[in-house]
Amino acid sequence: MDRYVTRQPIKALKEDKIIGYEVLFQKDYDSLYSSSDVAAADTIAGFLMQNTERIFQDKLTFVTFTPSLLFRNTPKIFDKDKLVIQIEDHVMIHPLSPTIIKKYRTEGYIFAINDFQFSPKYFTMLDFVTYIKVDVSNKHEGRERVSLNNLINTMKGFDKKCIATGVNTKEDYELAMEVGADFAEGSYVAEAMANKVNRMEFLEGNFFQLVVEVSKDEPDIQQIEEIVSHDAALSYALLKIVNSAYFALRRRVSSIRQALVTMGISQLKQWVYLLSFNNDFEKDEALEAMMKLSFLRANYAMALSEHVEDLPIIRSEVYMMGMFSTLQFMIDAPLEEILEEVPVAQEIKDALIKREGVCGDLYRLILSYENADWKEVKLLSDKLGIPSGLLAQTYMDCVETVNEIWNGIISSSAYQEAEAIMHETHT
User: Fold this and answer.
1) Of 166, 194, 222, which residue is a domain's last?
2) Would 68 disulfide with which of 30, 41, 176, 363, CB 3.0-4.6 Å?
3) Is the whole model's pTM more than 0.85, yes or no?
4) What is the tens place of the pLDDT at every residue in 407-416?
């Protein structure tokens, strides 16, 4: 049976900050949690054990645990300061649940209730939970809107933090704000973060020239060196990356040519998009979240493309398609206009703008996977000939790759070394 897993960000509504991610599991496109609890527990426990370090990073991780997982003490293999144990209806009705939940709570674990409702069984758990998750979709008017408002106000009275789920449109996001939810989760959240991104100031000629050069079948290292050398920001970023902990060099690299040789053309193709941004992403969580998303899409698209027959573009172009999928949020212009200024294949333009062609199907598959639309994921993976059993592990591999590279870039030692290098270069 196929097994899928993805992460959805949970954003603070009053500030541009991601507080954590919910790990969503699925078996085929029917919920794992509707199958037998033992089978669900086996599937989830196995995956979590194999991917602990990839899933749990510096943010909170929300995971829904079945009764069997709780009774097996599965949460104890994770850092309790980073884990939020989510419980659902089938947990609350289990006769032994209050005892085991109280035990975890006493040990310092944090709990959340999924899809909270006005019902005695939900209120009996309030003493143990920190977060209440409430679905706001289709509750914009009438009785549903009044009930939603009353529920969140009541939870505020109990000093609970409310997470609005099902935030899939701008209207859902505005509703969550209006009723006083603390956080939001859903497919619109990434776009909401994107709208707060500080627009880039120097994604101009030098970067486009660099994109063109590294995308050639036989890139000219001398030409690349000249392009990078003419741009102080690109030069600084390149030296910073090569001298980061990610490359773990014994001696610091102090020239553009050395840096390019050390990185290699293959690595450079993966880094080139990232090199173009200014250093504000260190302080701008919205920009960081959007860049990580584009980087993840690029790596995931390239990995999946290996299984797609008759793909009309090469792997480096697939990577660029993923990267460019967020450009309209980073440059103050429509995506159509942006892509007209970049020498990319027509298939990429058709995929990103019209969602057409084989590339469009691949892009739609990635978006559907992000949004946990498992039925669409199944249909598109079958259409493209991608073994659906590979989707989950490939996705987590790409998450790990993005995290490793990102951590290498933003490590304080990398900044200090890069600044020292730039000082040496100019003296």
Assistant:
1) 194
2) 41
3) no
4) 655 553 333 4
